[in-house]
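Much of our argument rests on the idea that a fold can be written as discrete symbols. Part of our work consisted of pairing the sequence of a single chain with a tokenised description of its backbone. We regard such an encoding as a compact summary of how the chain folds. The amino acid sequence and the backbone structure tokens for this protein are reproduced below.
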Amino acid sequence: MPVYNKLVRDIIPEIIASTGKQYSTRILENNEYISELKKKIREELDEYINTDGNEGAIEELADLLEVIHSLAKVHGSSIEEVEQVRKEKFKERGGFDKRILLVKVED
């Protein structure tokens, strides 16, 4: 039996059960959950970075966004509040649409 020891989406155990396979899970304590979410966001970011093509990129961005939703909740917030902070930062500093690479700043 392969050992995964990784955070999975909520319905994955049901999907595994529907195949007739045996599995084991456990519910994480809050600190473990945050740690596993941080691992998961790195995993999803790596998958995004290593994806070619728009379709795969969108799939991986959706996975990243799902983890961000969970991280917002675990930090006592919501995706709406995260979006509000994003908008405020956009208003103050802009976004990345102009593709500006800062090369150097003189002292």
Q: What stands out?
A: Residues 54-74 form the longest helix (21 residues). The chain has a mean pLDDT of 97. Helices lie at 12-18, 30-49, 54-74, 79-93. The CA atoms of residues 21 and 29 lie 26 Å apart.
